[in-house]
Records
---
Amino acid sequence: MIATTRKNHCLFVLDTNVLMHDPTALYRFMEHDIYLPMIVLEELDAGKKGQSETARNVRQVSRFLDEMLADIDIGTLDQGLPVQTALRGQGEQPAAPTGRLFLQTHEEKSELPVSLPGNRADNQILGITLALKERISDREVILVSKDINLRIKATAVGLKAEDYHNDQVLDDVSLLHTGYEILGPDFWEAHGQSLESWQAEDRVYYRVRGADTDEWYPNLYLRLEAPAPFTAVVREVHDDGTAVLESITNFEQERHSVWGITARNPEQSFALNALMDPSIDFVSLLGQAGTGKTLLTLAAALTQVLEHKQFTEIVMTRVTIPVGEDIGYLPGTEEEKMTPWMGALMDNLEVLAKTDGGGGSWERAATNDLLQSRIKIRSLNFMRGRTFQNKFVIIDEAQNLTAKQMRTLITRAGPGTKMVCLGNVAQIDTPYLTETSSGLTFVVDRFRGWGHGAHVTLARGERSRLAEFAAEVL
């Protein structure tokens, strides 16, 4: 029997998809209690086999539950399991005070509308939650589910239902930093006289003092439009209100082209600076279709692999989620199976092969050779346990990754490896992921301020006037 003395604490009934999405959800409800219906345990048992991320999450949930049950007296099971186990391997401790976890130990019955047959798992969860609400009058009973339709049905039968929000990085994706800042003329008026400058290794450095630096962080790109164009990157921010800036290359100029590609706007120039900077190990590029994310990244990768010899090869991967109906299994090796998913790679390589930049046929032949020798296409499904050394790794369509998948991928980086994440959080194809819970949003927010990471949001479409107009109105 569930205790009714915790009047200020809620009782959250968890749907199966919450635990499949985040195994640590068991530890995320602070002082409140959790209830797991038996049908949820059945669905978890049915989903434990396989090598998918969901199956791994289910197995992790089972391990957490097994740890909780290890020293419990069966006679006291009705009193709930104390949620005090540390998140082993997660680097976290549960917040105190913690609630209790209740497993369904006897049948909970409630009358559902005739239109909701009780043999479906979702409807069984609804019936159990409704029965708990009727039986426990002094506590709020809330159903937590990632399934929108289940939440709608719960509301229709008089239950309070909520989405699982603990995986959200931000309350609103508009709060995500862009990675750059445009400075007005007043900045030069305020700091022009006191600006210190010096030169080292063909770079010009500046020291800025003032309140403007409070919101700055390492690898934030700055552009001053007037009185004269000035672009720089923040290298250091100090507690005494000073910051050190470094002048950056203007890739909008033809003489600074990268593999024949020049930036068409300041944001693309910032992106190329991040991609070409050897001190930056991780780059994330956000932007709608046609902003040049893949083209700029491939141009920088080819230059650093073939011309500068900084990396041995390019590794490209992405989530294989179809936009329309799945065409089924694909024949061939891992690389042959992945090739149909790499249309963006092939399209952009065609563009890069045609940019002669003085190389002409040699450049086209070199790019064609790269398809066979220097660009490796790898499946995300086989990344666990691998280590990439001296590689330029590109993760395309990263908005479809969960935070856990993103963590798994980025930790594959070995010595001398650079990782680039590309994506558009407005085009998420994965169920139960949103703009605020996407793994791409997660890494952009968490890498902010790290001295070896950079982020740029590309806002201007450069593919064509048709693509730009479609992105705005459709």
Note: Residues 258-473 form a domain with the Rossmann fold fold (CATH 3.40.50.300).
---
Amino acid sequence: MRSQSSWLHLVVSITIAAAVTTSLLATEPAPLRAKIDPLAQPYLDNDIVWGMAIGVLQDDQPTVFGYGRFSETDDRVPDGQTMFEIGSITKVLTGLLLADAVTQDYVTLQDPANKWLPEGDGTLTYEDQPIRLVDLSTHVSGLPRLPTNMRRKNPKDPYADYTQADLYEFVRTHKLSRARGAKMEYSNLAVGLLGQLLANAEKTTYEQLLKDRLVSPLKLTNTTITLTDDQRRRLAPPHTADRQPATNWAIPTLAGAGAVRSNCDDVLSFAAAYLHPPESDLGKAIELSWKVHQQPVAAGDFAMALGWHLARDGSTRWHNGQTGGYHSMLLVSRSLNAAVVVLTNTATGEIDKLAEDILRMQAGIPVEPRRFDKAVSVEREIMLKYVGKYQLTPDFIFTVTESDGRLMVGVTGQPTFEVFARSDTEWFYKVVDATLTFQMNDAGKCTAVELFQNGVRQTASRVE
């Protein structure tokens, strides 16, 4: 459910609540496709994704383009009705559910999280300063990225076995190490907990709350957690970053952080509601969730609305998401009256740049098709010199391993991914636009690794 704000940092005129019940591919304007095809094609030619659906809102006109195929053995081309796991874009839905609950007077943004926990489970306080609901949505709660009591019986489906009892046990026993607002730390735990607390406040489940308060009013007929048989037939199968078959994720307890499945048609309708909010209580909630509620705390942080990150232009709202076999990116710009969504059934953050390039194109900025690095071969003897642990901060450690001639890198509390060589010392991710450069001393020993992402360089010193 990763987002770029974590360590891997960046319509036919319809009534807003009207459903888009059929694929929008039939209304593709040829000139727009001619502009997007050259931007999308490198992602296919370089085996970055198996398939993807690209949705564009421009001057209130929705369009969806499909590329690639479902899988190596399934030649169906994704379209506006193809279902995907949208991962952490779910957090934007949870932010809107929070705003809706405020508008309906169920909660306030300043409510302490403890208020909506079962009696006896409320300990989310640091030096008499409680975590508030708004802090959970804007990643300044002080909670870690993930709970420490996740047992992960199946690493390929890591959230499936985490129960509500586990969550309440964690919040009952966890000791906060800092006050709210002291640091921005992207947290699946915080937003997953927020989803549960909102469900508690309205005496329902997160999935039912989503259906009643957002899906039904906005007529998002394919935005769901539990798939129907028809939706399951339209679900593009998941793949890892190297395009190998992966596993669909179940997220029963931290659902508000990343459990939702949807398609391009629905996500465009959702984006349209943000460009032109309806005259209703839900429209008021949309405006509340669009509003900036948290300014950056440190250099490199993004300002935040409820669930939304603000881009560097100070206006565009965005969120991306990733599960074990999917990646998604959504950008909404009121200043351009435009939105872009890219959904793929391959777990790679490379498509974030594609979505950004399409939005730049909509703004009239010249955009060139992307050129991808080609990996070079590096001897295993050299890889073994990099094996070890590298500390950026006490709770942020890179663990580098070698497996069957592949260099693998994990980060504290996050999955392990393969990295690929540009040279003996410089390696790049395929799951996100980031590089690692290993630093060698005169004796030929690796002493540090430098992370380069979003124009920022950070060095982690070797500790093992």
Note: The longest strand covers residues 51-58.
